[in-house]
Amino acid sequence: MTFRLMRCAALVLLGVSGCGGAVAQTYPTKPIRLIVPYPAGGGSDLMARPMAQKLNEKWGQSVLVDNRAGATGMIGTEIAARSAPDGYTLLLGSVAEIALNGTVYRKMSYDAERDLAPVTLLASSPLLLAVHPSLPAHNVREFIALAKKRPGEIGYATAGNGSPHHVAGEWVKIIAQIDLNHVPYKGGGPQLVDLMGGHVHSGFLALPVAAPHLKAGKLRALAVTGATRSKAIPQVPTADESGLRGLDVSQWWGILVPAGTPRERIAKLHAALADIVKTPDMRARLAELGADPVGSSPEAYSQFVRAEIAKFRKIVKAANISVN
């Protein structure tokens, strides 16, 4: 073996570049873009920024958060899906644009399973069924009984047509056999304002947004979706415990990259992110957002996405939910 080849082999083992064209530079060697398909300040953005900072600290490369909002996350997601598959464009994807949109929208500009490669499921959080304190319902059973006495009169607010909140509300109608009035808003902010103002009776809310107002008495929590109680508000029962058997609509966030991204780069991203979500300060940050850390493998995340799509396709069909 020549001296040059011996030197290159040693550098490869050390993870150092320096063999000209013989050895590719160690990834990453330039700034990384993390696309968030929602506005700054929202739940996805609050999840993305500490992750970006931690990756920056870990790798010594800038990770720039790029907010590309619009069309229920579809604009930013399409940008990510059409980007070069080189590991330098990441997507902070959530349940809506990755698993739900394809089941409710008639026209899609991307196919999440075909155009994106999962890296890791970062964290998940249940949705919260809450009511304005003036509504005479202190638990789910009282809420259902009231809805049966006043069919079509009780409104439930959501962050928009075709959102996870909307699916949760329609699912409740099917399970409890009640008639609720869907009141869609253009985002979680306006939804929360009107619910706290008493302009709408109830709503399905993202936990990070709702939790502070529960403590202030501006909202009354009835139940969380999902199979287990939330660590952020453990006193609030699950939907299952409350009689809404099978109601499982959670908000979750994961990292994906354009399809075709080299496996070794996906593996390096996964290893870094899985370590990050396990750190005490990141766990504390996620707890503030009402989310539980996951850090699953790319294969497990892929299986999870397929299961979520199948679940939503079934309930969307049963509830006849469709968005043009």
Care to describe what's here?
This protein has 324 residues and is an alpha/beta fold. The chain has two domains: 3-125 and 251-319, 3-Layer(aba) Sandwich (D-Maltodextrin-Binding Protein, domain 2), CATH 3.40.190; 126-224, Periplasmic binding protein-like II (D-Maltodextrin-Binding Protein, domain 2). It is built from twelve helices and ten strands. Strands 1, 2, 3, 4, 5, 6, 7, 8, 9 and 10 form a ten-stranded mixed sheet that branches. Strand 1 (32-36), helix 2 (43-59) and strand 2 (63-67) form a beta-alpha-beta unit. It is globular, with a radius of gyration of 22 Å. The termini are far apart. The model is unreliable at 1-24 (pLDDT under 50).
- The oligomeric status of these chains comes to single chain
CATH architectural type of the largest domain: 3-Layer(aba) Sandwich
**Element-level helix/strand string:** HEHEHEHHEHEHEHEHEEHHEH
Question: CATH superfamily membership of the largest domain, which one?
Answer: Bordetella uptake gene, domain 1
Strand content: 15-25%
Give the helix proportion (percent range): 40-55%
Distance between the termini: 65 Å
The CATH class of the largest domain turns out to be Alpha Beta
CATH topology-level fold name of the largest domain: D-Maltodextrin-Binding Protein, domain 2
> Helices and strands: which structural class?
alpha/beta
Low-confidence stretches: 1-24
The description of the largest β-sheet is: 10 strands, mixed
In the residues, how many domains can be counted?
2
